[in-house]
Amino acid sequence: MKKYSGHKIKSVDPGSIADQLELEPGDVLLTINGQEVEDIFDYQYKLNNDRVTVEVLKKNGEDWELDIENDYSDLGLNFENGLMSDYRSCSNDCVFCFIDQMPPGMRDTLYFKDDDSRLSFLQGNYVTLTNMSDHDLQRIITFHLAPINISVHTTNPELRCRMLHNRFAGEALKKIDTLYEADTPMNGQIVLCPGINDGEELERTIRDLTKYVPVMQSLSVVPVGVTKFRNGLYPLRCLTPEEAGRTIDQIERWQKKIYAEHGIHFVQASDEFYLLAGRPLPEAERYDGYIQLENGVGMLRLQHEEAASALEPLRDDGKKEKVTIATGLLAAPYIEKIAKAVMARFPGREIRVIPVKNRYFGSQITVSGLLTGQDIRDALLSLDLGNRLLLPCSMFRSGEEVFLDDMTRTELSDALGVRVDIVPEGGDSLVEAMLSPVRKNLPGENPYEPEDGGVPEPGENTGRRNPAE
Ligand code: SF4
Q1: How many CB atoms lie within 10 A of CB 112?
Q2: pLDDT tens-digit map of 73-110
Q3: Best substitution site from 120, 132, 164 to test ligand 1's pocket, by max atoms within 8 Å of Cβ?
Q4: Is the CB of residue 166 below 6 angstroms from any atom belonging to ligand 1?
């Protein structure tokens, strides 16, 4: 028998084909149709057949070969490694890499530099294409995986090599052509570094990428994040308000042109540009359906719209409560506007918004998602916080109640002597959390559904962040 390392089964869905075939946790999937399984996408592709032969190494050492009529359905197997493969790390050394600017002593996983196209399809990560082989590219096309999110940064090959510190980074741009020719939906991203890829270089990049519209469906421009831990790194600075304003003008010029030709705006400046330049946020229609929310593009506009429609049908219930919301400096003025609208409709509610300065990473970092528990604790320690403290879920590790510095929600709650509620994503959730305690907020569940007799407690959150770029 040929030896395969295989994929260890973590669980079997009750009632599934695998369950009926008496497969169990601890068994190892060796092959499908006599071939090894490369990863989760290869697994799904190989299963997409009305008849498959699956070879399994049972816990007791027996080798089972199962002929399965699976009617194109999932077998009901879950594997210990969800990707069914190791994560691929990046081969770059980008001048703007956020991970290089993180303080020492944080949990190991935060320092992992992934650049794995499979994570683009599974969780929306952006990839540079520099470590993608022709085999990987072909698989994306064959398996019809989409959309692929690409960190372009610049279309100037020589500049891309310098920015990514990788001599293959310019050449890697040709893979965009291959994806385009195969009609693979793409999204692009540019981390804008003043004096490097802005101005004329940005002009060139947008112009070059418009030829991929509408297969490339969006292009976000986000400002580089600079922490206080840049010792020994390439000299980088944040954008000034004037530079942010000029970039907005440049992008909005392109939006008009591209909209006239293709009916989409395509290129968008992230919310940070508008806040930094002191400009009003674009109207909702300009975001083409909010394709790049995870990059902070249109998040504040959407939150505002969602909050307004959630508030619209509500009427004062006469209740009185004082609550506090802590948030990053960036979003604070917008949260404040929503709080004022809620207080106008519910006069008994007192909602105080506290912008928290990021001392951990440095004051230039103003997003809520990079605030730590200790900064929040220090900022709020001497304040009267009322009945509850509300915190956006973006401050917490996805699916957990843990801040970036490993402080937990409970530890913060104990330190401040106040109940801490984690507010799920969305302006509607924010309005609801302002008005009533957040219940268990597991992803996919309605956090406000009444629970019989249980004390409402916030639980896992759905916040996501991609601090790498
Ligand atoms: S920014 Fe991304 S691709 Fe560049 S070095 Fe950091 S993790 Fe790697």
Answers
A1: 11
A2: 789 999 999 899 998 999 999 999 999 999 988 888 88
A3: 164
A4: no
Confirm if 224 and 192 have CB atoms less than 8 A apart: yes
Its pTM stands at 0.88
State mean pLDDT over 416-443: 87
Residue 357 pLDDT greater than 50, yes or no: yes
**Residue 100 · residue 92 · CB < 8 Å:** no
Question: What would the 3-class secondary structure string for 103-149 be?
Answer: CCCCCHHHHCCECCHHHHHHHCCEECCCCCCHHHHHHHHHCCCCCEE
Could you tell me the distance, in angstroms and rounded to a whole number, from the CA of residue 167 to the centre of ligand 1? 14
Q: What is the pLDDT of residues 407-420, one digit of tens each?
A: 999 999 999 999 99
Helices 409-416 and 373-380, packing angle to 10 deg: 10
Q: What are the tens digits of pLDDT across the range 142-161? A: 999 999 999 999 999 999 99
Residue 202 in tokens: 């940005």
* Ligand 1 pocket check for 56: Cβ under 6 Å: no
CB-side exposure of 400: number of CA atoms within 13 Å? 8
Q: With a cut of 80, say whether residue 315 has pLDDT above it.
A: yes
- Rounded Cα gap, residues 67 and 55, in angstroms: 9
151 CA closest ligand 1 atom index = 3
Calpha distance 373→360 (Å, rounded): 10
